[in-house]
Amino acid sequence: MSETNPAATAPVTADAAPHRYTAAMAAEIEARWQDFWDAEGTYAAPNPKGDLAGDPELVARPKKFIMDMFPYPSGAGLHVGHPLGYIATDVFARFQRMTGHNVLHTLGFDAFGLPAEQYAVQTGTHPRASTEANMKNMVSQLRRLGLGHDKRRSFATIDPEYYKWTQWIFLQIFNSWYDDEAKRARPISELVAQFDSGERAVPGGGTWSALTEAERADLLGEYRLAYASDAPVNWCPGLGTVLANEEVTADGRSERGNFPVFKSKLRQWNMRITAYADRLLDDLDQLDWPEAIKLQQRNWIGRSEGARVDFPVDGEHITVFTTRPDTLFGATYMVLAPEHPLVEKFTPAAWPEGTRDAWTGGHATPTEAVAAYRAQAASKSDVERQAEAKDKTGVFIGAYATNPVNGEQVPVFVADYVLMGYGTGAIMAVPAGDQRDFEFARAFELPIRCIVEPTDGRGTDPSTWESAFASYDAKIMNSSNGEVSLDGLGVVEAKERITEWLERTGAGAGTVNFRLRDWLFSRQRYWGEPFPIVYDEDGIAHPLPASMLPLELPEVEDYSPRTFAPDDADTKPETPLSRNEDWVHVTLDLGDGRGPRRYRRETNTMPNWAGSCWYELRYLDPHNSEQLVDPEIEQYWMGPREGLPHGGVDLYVGGAEHAVLHLLYARFWSKVLFDLGHVSSAEPFHKLFNQGMIQAYVYRDSRGIAVPAAEVEERDGAYFHGGEKVSRLLGKMGKSLKNAVTPDEICAEYGADTLRLYEMAMGPLDVSRPWDTRAVVGQFRLLQRLWRNVVDENTGRLSVADVAETDVDADTLRALHKAIDGVRQDLEGMRFNTAIAKVTELNNHLTKVGGPVPRPVAERLVLLVAPLAPHVAEELWRKLGHTASVVHEDFPVADPAYVVDETVTCVVQIKGKVKARLEVSPSVSEEDLEKAALADEKVVAALGGAGIRKVIVRAPKLVNIVPA
Hints:
Layout: H1 23-40, H2 56-59, E1 63-68, H3 83-98, E2 102-105, H4 114-123, H5 127-144, H6 160-174, E3 176-179, E4 184-187, H7 188-197, H8 213-221, E5 226-236, E6 241-243, E7 262-271, H9 277-282, H10 291-301, E8 303-313, E9 316-322, E10 333-336, H11 342-346, H12 357-360, H13 366-378, H14 382-385, E11 395-402, E12 409-414, E13 426-429, H15 435-443, H16 491-505, E14 508-514, E15 519-520, E16 533-535, E17 541-543, H17 581-584, E18 585-588, E19 597-601, H18 615-620, H19 631-638, E20 651-654, H20 661-675, E21 688-690, E22 694-700, E23 706-707, E24 713-715, E25 718-721, E26 724-731, H21 743-750, H22 752-761, E27 769-770, H23 776-788, H24 810-828, H25 832-849, H26 855-865, H27 870-879, H28 896-899, E28 904-910, E29 913-920, H29 926-935, H30 937-943, E30 948-954, E31 958-963
Parallel strand pairs: 1-2, 1-20, 10-12, 20-21, 22-27, 28-31
Antiparallel strand pairs: 3-4, 5-6, 5-7, 7-15, 8-9, 8-14, 10-13, 11-12, 16-17, 16-19, 18-19, 22-23, 22-26, 24-25, 25-26, 28-29, 30-31
Helix pairs in contact: 1-21, 1-27, 4-5, 21-22, 22-23, 24-25, 24-26, 26-27
């Protein structure tokens, strides 16, 4: 570190107390130390090797990798709610440095995304220009907060040298398949070798060598972890793109823009995340995450055990998954989801003889009925389709299936209460045991057969029932076919017996099902990573060789995907890249021995989640152009070790809103890279912490429109804006709600250290809390008192007493070491609010004692403050005569002799009322404490000679006496 003393350049201001800690002084101190940290590389975290190697003494320390969730550089800039997590991780990282760790803490930008593209469409500004301007502003705002990031490691996902590796990872996933026997991903070349050698049979018979190139591509597509398929998607005409399920709101609208979303069938890229469902579930147990987040992931993955059952239809079959195969004898009809691919296949040209009018929907043919119903269902969200209160609708498709247990012909319907997103998209309907099936059966006059004996006295005739009866405790009845009988069995035994029968007869098998669906990975947008895929004249997809990466996003004149009327469900996407003819159609030599050929590029782009699936790895080795990450560097920072069985980031802090999307996707990518041997960590983030939200009051006028919070006046408990009474409600902070407070404003009025202290002191980090600008001054005064305890406000000189610790009074030593002990524990546990309270208590003690603060106390007080208010700590540390930065100083260690209280107060109660207080040793025995209490004059007087029935002692703080 430099021996330069930046504190020596501090200006002297004309004031009644010219060296008082003011906002102006804070601004000058903070800017100067920020410049110093940048110039000295104070926060550089050395790697064990590579271009960021250095300082072997630091590398030899235990490491700590601390991360914030990837920020998106919004054009609106930061409000004071945004830095909450960033300040918290900065405080924790500073504490870890001071406790002997090599700390990696940096911040990049998740810069691809829809907002920049929408802004480009509206203004004609290139997304890169607006995004880079937003990043520059955000970097400036964050720098002002004094965040200790290793700036050498920062990047943005829009940097070609970054998304080169995003594309490279996509190719690794594309060129892989999941081996169910080995329970891991393997290179697709190994699967080809199995087909070629005959070790693995080619489906349908034949040999690998006899297949055409297109047939081989189609077969491998059934196995690849990244694959293209024609599948039902969420099509949003108003945005001109398809959306993942997670990007559609509960009422069937787009999360961004609030446009209607429809079901449509398109050829899209998908990630086979379902192959990892079991591992994604099982490995949650080894992660230090909030239980609420683990529960959300478990529910989203949705593992359930049951059976697969095949219902024959015209020589083929419909497969269903059921968790209750024991109710198979009660299945009286079947339902296919409107999007099910078998609907068209099994729909005949004419209605079968005897088809009921109620089943046809009033249409002349099954084809007309199904088409009309599908169009109706496409306009509804999944939530609407499954609403319990809605009327059950559907149409008969004109086909019958055979119930395998009794040979009964059951009609097949299409109905919107069945979704393709769960199971097989088909159900066997057991109306006696499922309320939705019961209501549908009543509406369409379908049989209801009692197969579980009711235990509530309703009887066994379903025609008299008002609702379905479902139970796991009842006995099975009416369930026998001569080969297998379930009658009289409990549910568990019945499930085992029918599953064994299904497997023996070939009608089905026991199986596990997941709610999790494969990840839709295509977007019809411009501002995203291009796919490193080209198509030949036969439409076969070919991966680009790694030497052709990055495939850079080309310049286009029109950034907008073609959008349509929001309600026009019959439209199809048209991507911006498809209009760039010179880029789309290219002649390339892919190095496959075929020489130059004509290809067509993929014109979809990757979703904005792609770049955030692996960014923790780029922080480790950000300038590596030869490989994803150096294995030794990855092992050092993220490899498995004691307490981290799957490896990963030591601490990851961000909002709980990413519980499913980002966290699940990143875990999937990590596991694929682990299986293929590219990383040693099978999980990206070992410890997860969700910070709360800083809220603010929203004021609305009589029209319900938000008015500027800064212009609202409070009078007699009511609130007024421009003379008009307005309502007040606590909510989010944001520009649109006109209640945003920027960190720039607070820094200008009080300084960054005050803002840092206030945000950390507002309450527990994981709890949401209301912002109150008026309360910020409390932390500013704390810093002013701290300053006065070290610096003479009139002269600017040091005012501490140069005495030995042995000359410090016992009360002060006790206050100091109790503060050290408490603050250390609180910072380790991320209890920053209580740590600040303990610092305040110590500072107030020194102020109350008066006189010059002893140097041993002053120095350790500054070290306690350093993680929380680093600028003022640096300034005071330098004034105390130290030449090295406080950042890497050792955090104080408490002397145990001063931490234990010399005495504690014991309360003595008689009949529940306090009669005396005793000062006793913390280690006093129950026997001695009882004797002391009974001998106390006040207790003797209160008893007045009465006998004692019982004495309850809770040493050292309570004695409860019960008179006779």
